[in-house]
């Protein structure tokens, strides 16, 4: 079994915990009851409360135009939560946006392959793995692979949840940086918050706020001989001129792709370190996710990127712990638990399609 020694060594130092519903972060969406849905007046008051909670600048004309959509979403979310799904939905910052608006926004479209591709991945290596069934996810699989039943890198190797913002399609940079922050903390025992803005400004293979690609972001970090701390090159949510910063960079030696369409390969990688993934995120249910184990519709294309920072099992079944870049008021404090049980080889939200992780020796 490839990487067995590395995984075993890393696990000895890792914080390995059993994640259950009772231990997940409190959701940050707006709470409401059927009384808030009872009349136009109570729904308007709920909308006003929502605008204040998310600091949404809406004049009266725009509020009036968007109110019907907000009402529809509030009713739809409430009805979903009365059922027996493994996940709940909530009113969040996307709740008065149309599907088209979200899909055209930087949150909905931020992952693009660059026009210029790095030559056959000079810093890339495919992680080999035993050929096992893609949906082998329960106790027998983890035991056979020598993996713990649950892993959570938060607390030692994961920085705070960040927000790419409404003006910049930089999820690719946030996913790459989360993975680099993770392996750097594991190798050095020092958790350093790194600069997504340096990638947005300086990685000219990718497209800055117009989108990018995780492999080319990691290639940039290798070619640039590192990435600087966030404090010396802070995030501003727009693309600017590349600046030279005098600060000790965090370096990596390359990256490896995880064998795609293989749950066990991704579990093995995540047991050793956080892993960057491409994923789907444009569907209504996913963007209104509030908590629980998500097994719904995520969308039809890989337009987003995030980082898998753990896995576990609970009342909703086995899941991945995914760090998103939509801020701490989305989901479970900025995280989503995505089901490891999938109806096809792509995984829920396409999470098994293109996983990869940075290498730091």
UniProtKB/TrEMBL annotation:
Q: What InterPro entries does the record point to?
A: Papain-like_cys_pep_sf (IPR038765), Pept_asp_AS (IPR025661), Peptidase_C1A (IPR013128), Peptidase_C1A_C (IPR000668), Peptidase_C1A_papain-like (IPR039417), Prot_inhib_I29 (IPR013201)
Start and end residues of each Cathepsin propeptide inhibitor domain? 47-102
Concerning its family, UniProt says: Belongs to the peptidase C1 family.
**Which CDD domains does the record match to this protein?**
Peptidase_C1A
Mind listing the UniProt keywords for this protein, alphabetically?
Disulfide bond, Signal
GO terms under biological process: proteolysis
MF terms in GO: cysteine-type peptidase activity
Name the UniProt record assigns to this protein: Uncharacterized protein
Kindly name one Pfam family recorded for this protein. Answer: Inhibitor_I29
Domain Peptidase C1A papain C-terminal per the UniProt entry, residue ranges = 147-359
User: PROSITE patterns given for it?
Assistant: THIOL_PROTEASE_ASN (PS00640)
């Amino acid at each position: 079994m490839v990487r067995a020694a590395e995984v075993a060594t890393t696990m000895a130092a890792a914080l390995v915990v059993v994640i259950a519903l009772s231990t997940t972060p409190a959701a940050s969406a707006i709470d409401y009851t059927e009384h808030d849905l009872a009349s136009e007046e109570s729904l308007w008051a709920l909308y006003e409360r929502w605008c204040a909670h998310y600091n949404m600048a809406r004049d009266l004309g725009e509020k009036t135009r968007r109110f019907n959509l907000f009402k529809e979403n509030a009713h739809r979310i409430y009805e979903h939560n009365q059922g027996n799904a493994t996940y709940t939905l909530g009113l969040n910052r996307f709740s008065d946006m149309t599907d088209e608006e979200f899909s055209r926004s930087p949150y909905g479209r931020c992952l693009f392959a660059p026009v210029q591709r790095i030559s056959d991945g000079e810093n890339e290596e495919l992680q080999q793995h035993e050929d096992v069934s893609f949906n082998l996810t329960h106790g027998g699989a983890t035991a056979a692979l020598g993996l713990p039943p649950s892993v959570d890198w938060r607390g030692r190797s994961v920085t705070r949840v960040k927000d790419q913002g409404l003006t910049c399609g930089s999820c690719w940079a946030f996913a790459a940086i989360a993975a680099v922050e993770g392996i750097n903390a594991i190798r050095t025992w020092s958790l350093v918050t790194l600069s997504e803005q340096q990638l947005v400004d300086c990685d000219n293979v990718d497209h800055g706020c117009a989108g990018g690609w995780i492999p080319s972001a990691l290639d940039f970090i290798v070619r640039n001989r590192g990435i600087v701390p966030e404090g010396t090159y802070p995030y501003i949510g727009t693309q600017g001129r590349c600046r030279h910063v005098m600060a000790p960079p965090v370096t990596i030696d390359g990256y490896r792709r995880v064998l795609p369409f293989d749950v066990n390969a991704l579990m093995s990688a995540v047991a050793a370190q956080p892993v960057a993934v491409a994923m789907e995120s444009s569907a209504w249910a996913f963007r209104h996710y509030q908590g629980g184990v998500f097994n719904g519709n995520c969308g039809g294309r890989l337009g987003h990127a995030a980082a898998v920072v753990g896995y576990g099992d609970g009342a909703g079944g086995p899941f991945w712990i995914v760090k998103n870049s939509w801020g701490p008021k989305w989901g479970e404090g900025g995280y989503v638990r995505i089901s490891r049980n999938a109806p096809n080889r792509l995984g829920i939200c396409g999470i098994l399609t293109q996983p990869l992780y940075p290498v730091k020796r």
